[in-house]
Amino acid sequence: MECLVATTGYTGEAGAEILCKNADAVSIWNAVMEAGKSVDAKPVGLGARDVLRLEAGYPLYGHELDDSTTPVEAKLMWVVKPEKGNFTGREKILKNEEEGPSRILIGLAAEERCIPRQGCKLVDGQKEIGVVTSGTFSPTIKKGIALAYIHPEYRAANTPVGIQIRDKICKFKVV
Prior knowledge:
Number of domains: 2
Strand content: 25-35%
Helix content: 10-25%
CATH architecture of the largest domain: Beta Barrel
Shape: flat
Structural class: alpha+beta
Strand order of the largest sheet: 3-6-5-4-7-8
Radius of gyration: 19 Å
Number of helices: 3
Number of strands: 8
CATH class of the largest domain: Mainly Beta
Distance between the termini: 44 Å
């Protein structure tokens, strides 16, 4: 069997992704699960992957990323090298770096019992300052967590912000 094993992933945990032919998938799955018995390896689903990616602060296309998001806003300039030559969107990125973004991706942790969801508004008093792009309960820290785009003046760690969840403003801090 031929496959490609990449030590990449989308959870922030040590692991690997295996790319193989469909016909080989079941055999490879069974071999991996058998080998993993010695370390009590367990399969997990998309829900677990999503919680782990949020805990790691990894953006997801369709939530934190779309065709209008710049690498500056999403804190992804570590993968973009404008100085290496011309490419589509280069001028927009350079302008966004020079002028500063109007929004920036940040992580949030609840200060009280609340679970934020995509689309919840971030507020400072009556002023809307951002929007949650992904949110869930973190079983690791036992708090609600979120990724959100926020006005850059609120991006510093430990900055208190409110998230409107239904008819309540819940207390969160930037992490």
